[in-house]
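Form 7-S
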Amino acid sequence: MTARETILDVDVARMRIAWLAEAEGLEHYNASAQVIDAGGDACRVVWIADLLPDAGAPGIAGVIEQGLSVMKRHQEELRAAG
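Output:
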């Protein structure tokens, strides 16, 4: 799937970004991701996606899982590099 994404808002203080995506087969897609401090060197990422049609949810869930995996790996690499 190829999508055109448009950034809607970047809130640095809240560590949150919101965007929309346009892609064939999607009638609607808005999403946000926010990094939440979990104490120490830990954080939690909350990624919320609102999309239509519902039938697209499994594919989008896979994309979200891949994105979260890349974020986690990058964070671990930064931590290892000191």
